[in-house]
Design brief:
Number of strands of chain B: 3
Order of helices and strands of chain B: HHEHHEEH
Strand content of chain A: 5-15%
Structural class of chain B: alpha+beta
Low-confidence stretches of chain A: none
Number of helices of chain B: 5
CATH class of chain B: Mainly Alpha
Largest sheet of chain B: 3 strands, antiparallel
Mean pLDDT of chain A: 89
Strand order of the largest sheet of chain B: 1-3-2
CATH topology of chain A: Rossmann fold
Mean pLDDT of chain B: 82
Strand content of chain B: 5-15%
Order of helices and strands of chain A: HEHEHHEHEHEH
Oligomer: heterodimer
Distance between the termini of chain A: 33 Å
CATH topology of chain B: Arc Repressor Mutant, subunit A
CATH superfamily of chain A: Response regulator
Radius of gyration of chain B: 16 Å
Low-confidence stretches of chain B: 1-5, 106-113
CATH class of chain A: Alpha Beta
CATH architecture of chain A: 3-Layer(aba) Sandwich
CATH superfamily of chain B: Winged helix-like DNA-binding domain superfamily/Winged helix DNA-binding domain
């Protein structure tokens, strides 16, 4: 079997599975602070993998020779990743947001998760970062408040990420032309 | 907000297949998959030498294979960190399904002769 035939066979088997599940295959990356939130990202990845979604946590899934921060513009830009979830829990993650949000090939895939006190709709904060969130929200619509505790009735990241990923793969399966890349 | 439970039963096999074949549905990952099959325990740097793409991008593709459960990874420290790859049980099954009856590219053919890393499973 030639290389081309093998690739075609892989595609056919994938499409058969997609047809049976009425869901598209999906690859996503869960980014955030290496300390705070890492355990939560691992748990979310497990939930997603249990549903047939390929969910990467760079700290665990990347070879140790390569630092997780190597997930930079050019890697995300040229890979076939469908969605990039970025939990902003540190200044490092905020810096990554600034980098990705300004890249028109990555920004549409970006799903930004922020605490309600920094979310432009929930908070009157006039910080530069909140302003940047507002710009991203208006341009792409994907800045979500999460983990508000008792103060704000918003979902946890753990509940929100699977919900968004599921809907994305449904749309990708039935209306792929409506997925912006 | 509750997270709906993952489906169980007959669907779970299809779910695993979807995840695995989503991972393999890429020419670079398919090449890496065959390379890892032919050289179990192959270290990251050796894969990088044969699949000539930037190491960051290769790290992503190998990460996809790992996250999909297609390959197993082991780590060792020999002065520096060494990550090595071999097919997991699912990967072996997929390889049989895809390449049944097709000769593998062993070192004898001269096409691929990779040095496996002396690693301990972690």
């Amino acid at each position: 079997m030639s290389k081309g035939n093998t690739a075609r066979r892989v595609r056919i088997i994938r499409e058969e599975a997609e047809e049976r599940l009425k869901r598209s295959g999906l690859i996503l990356i869960l980014l955030g602070s290496s300390e705070r939130g890492l355990e939560e990202r691992r748990q979310v990845a497990e939930v997603l993998r249990g549903r047939g979604i390929v969910a990467l946590v760079p700290e665990d899934d990347f070879p140790k020779e390569i630092g997780p921060s190597v997930i930079e513009d050019d890697v995300l830009e040229r890979s076939d990743v469908d969605l990039v979830f970025l939990s902003i829990e540190s200044w490092g993650a905020a810096t990554e947001f600034g980098q990705f949000a300004s890249n028109p090939r990555i920004a549409p895939k970006l799903r930004v998760l922020v605490r309600p006190e920094y979310h432009p709709v929930h908070s009157p904060s006039s910080s530069y970062l909140t302003d940047l969130y507002l710009t991203h929200l208006v341009r792409y619509g994907h800045v979500y408040p999460v983990d508000g505790g008792r103060q704000a009735p918003v979902p946890s990241a753990k509940a929100l990420i699977p919900m968004l990923a599921e809907r994305h793969r449904e749309i990708k399966a039935f209306r792929p032309s409506r997925i912006s890349k | 907000m509750k997270t709906p439970a993952a489906p169980e039963g007959p669907d779970s096999e299809v779910i695993e297949r979807l995840k695995a074949y989503t991972a393999l549905d890429n020419p670079i990952r398919l090449r890496a998959f065959r390379l890892i099959h032919d050289s179990p325990g192959v270290p990251f740097n050796e894969i990088a030498k044969h699949i000539r793409i930037e190491s960051g991008l290769l790290a992503y593709h190998l990460g996809v294979l790992k996250a999909a459960g297609v390959v197993d990874v082991a780590y060792a420290r020999e002065g520096r960190q060494v990550t090595s790859y071999r097919l997991g049980e699912m990967g072996q099954e997929l390889h049989s399904e895809l390449f049944r009856g097709r000769p593998s590219r062993t070192p004898k053919t001269g096409k691929v002769a990779l040095r496996p890393a002396p690693v301990r499973p972690s």
